[in-house]
């Protein structure tokens, strides 16, 4: 069953396994070049690695340290394109880099790197980096530790506060271009016939319906799960060597900065961040080798302790404890398997497209990839698919194609006009803009057509019932978790949407055909899905139930 029907039939040019940001970008690019495409994911779009990143659109400053100029160039270009094609989702994000006595990367070396970065970014950045005198540091960042502080520099990168919405917009555009996307659908096997991979077999996890999708080319874009897709069916060396990255989310703390701080951890010399995010702070991330269960990745106590200790070190008044952590976020980076590397930071963050021919013709596997360069990765995969198909190259159009939320000739003017005429207060109107872009008008239209949909379902965010309806009708959400965590983003608030979940399920009962039994099951399922985040609110609710 396709939860996002865009045509029927079981035969396509390209079958993509994985609906993370890379799989969706591949579908969009390939469909834009005229290919028939189907995408399959056993969960929701962007529910794996794509929703566990640091939410940064990196220009690639860190990669200069490894002299990976090609990746830096690609990252800067893709960041620049996202500023133009998704201005509602991607924004300029200043970062302060403090230099402390004993750092492995001295101030002069960092300033030299920033100079090189500025040169590579000419015409495609949001401002030049600059040295920040100690006096200015004391005035603008008074909470920052001055013990051993030798200097600082400020540079400009980019942030996508809602990476989940970037995935949604790729989905919307891919569907509009003709791609078929099946979520909550397991790939039960590849169709392998005499040295050819001719598609895949699927099973809908909700209905049990089985289907064969015949494809001329199959793309394994399952991120950290790429080896699992091949296991037992395709002989291959180990391809994924992903490392675990964990973050914690906390409320503002004494001395908290108003810009991102990018600093070197004392414990392991790793560069980490204190990231202002939606009125709170994300601290991260770790970079640990991981050979555990890919379906059960949580931030460990040691990782949480490490992030809090390093933050407390450079912000002495913070005094953060594990009890201050609202929730944690952990995921596995889809990196290439690499042997003999003592420092995980040295593993390439680039991507490669592996053609399994001649042993297995018609099969491509995507190794690596990151949030910033998803579009470039998709372009490379479609180019490779066209070669396998024996077709002439077709021009890629995604470099200049705006995402659906940015389809206006003048984004700043649209935003000003929307804020002037919205019936909502300014904070709620601004939130709609940052989540939906020009599609925010669709939310207001739904609320105007049916007054009950103008009700607020979440006090913290101000989200409307209309957003719940739009998430399912227009944006492919199937479960309450899809609605809360990857469409409306209510689930990324202080209590991870636990207080709002029953109200959102009730909207689905009244307007989307759910019955009361399903609504109760969805709320229980949502609480189960939140366990991997270790949310403080869920632990508190469990404690209340035990004592009542």
TrEMBL record:
Q: Does the keyword Transferase apply?
A: no
| Family affiliation | Belongs to the FAD-dependent glycerol-3-phosphate dehydrogenase family.
Q: Which keywords fit this entry according to its UniProt record?
A: FAD, Flavoprotein, Oxidoreductase
UniProt record, GO biological process? glycerol-3-phosphate catabolic process
The record's section on Pfam families has: DAO, DAO_C
Where do the FAD dependent oxidoreductase domain residues begin and end? 13-374
What's the protein here called?
Answer: Glycerol-3-phosphate dehydrogenase/oxidase
Domain of life where this protein originates: Bacteria
**UniProt cross-references to SUPFAM superfamilies, sorted A to Z:** FAD/NAD(P)-binding domain
The GO molecular function terms of this record are: glycerol-3-phosphate dehydrogenase (quinone) activity
Q: Where is the Alpha-glycerophosphate oxidase C-terminal domain?
A: 396-518
Q: Which cofactor does it need?
A: FAD
